[in-house]
Amino acid sequence: QVQLVESGGGLVQPGGSLRLSCTASRNIFRLNVGGWYRQAPGKQRELVAVITSGGSTNYADSVKGRFTISGDNAKNTVYLQMNSLEPEDTAVYYCTTRVLGRDYWGQGTQVTVSS
């Protein structure tokens, strides 16, 4: 079993920044992919960014150049640094990982971008 706990969400003005954290109950990111998804009201959940155990990253086109995913294996944590936030980034952000073919999700953290 793996538990994922997200933190760092909140209310921010357009153009602002937030850093989300996802801490796992076990040291899993050293060997498994970590990722962030988001779901806005009335929309499907969509991929935001992923990072492999080797450090390779991939981003949705809508966040390239603004968001950065990174990991700290010593802290069992994956981060999502979000800069130049836009109202369209408003959503619940979920952390996820896949261990031995099973997907695990955090409870989500709300990000609201509004003036």
Write up what this structure looks like.
It is a single chain. By secondary structure, the chain is mainly beta. The chain is built from no helices and eleven strands. The protein has strands at residues 4-7, 10-12, 18-24, 34-39, 46-51, 57-59, 67-72, 77-82, 91-99, 102-105, 109-113. The strands form two sheets. Strands 2, 4, 5, 6, 9, 10 and 11 form a seven-stranded mixed β-sheet that branches. The chain has a four-stranded antiparallel β-sheet with strand order 1-3-8-7, with no helix packed on it. A hairpin with a 4-residue loop joins strand 7 (67-72) and strand 8. The chain is globular, with a radius of gyration of 13 Å.
Query: How much helicity do the residues have?
Result: under 10%
Task: Say what oligomer this is.
Answer: single chain
Q: What spatial form do the alpha-carbon principal axes imply?
A: globular
Write down the secondary-structure element order. Answer: EEEEEEEEEEE
Q: Overall mean pLDDT score?
A: 95
Structural class: mainly beta
The largest sheet, given as strand count, sense and whether it forms a barrel, is: 7 strands, mixed
Cα end-to-end separation:
40 Å
Strand content: over 45%
Number of helices: 0
